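Exercise 3.2. Students should predict the tertiary structure of the chain below and write it as structure tokens, then compare their answer with the key that follows.

Predict this chain's 3D structure.
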Amino acid sequence: PVQIPPPISPKQDPEQALTQQIDYYFSLENLLRDIFLRKNMDSEGWIALDLILNFKRVKIIINGIQNSLENVQEFDGSIILESIKKCENLEIQYINDKTAENAAIDDVKLRVKGNYEQWLL
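Answer key:
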């Protein structure tokens, strides 16, 4: 049986939910059948973070994060970047001469940790 990630519960921390969800996308069980994700990998297995952030479940979690902020103006993407750093199944690449300290969402690519070549289509 295929495991489907649980829906986020009101008791779950949205940032933790985001980390779990993105980790799930790069898990063995998901990559075995997620052709869309694999089609969007470049020749080195990298996927733009922006693509992941447009997935329906991720959007729901991000809305939860935004709703939990007292001031929506506070939401600048740093919460997302901190959440992906906690993921265990992926590597992070910063592009456009950015680093972990000054990268924006558009400056981040992700790929499965370890043997990414096996997932290239």
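Discussion points: Residues 56-68 form the longest helix (13 residues). The chain has a mean pLDDT of 87.
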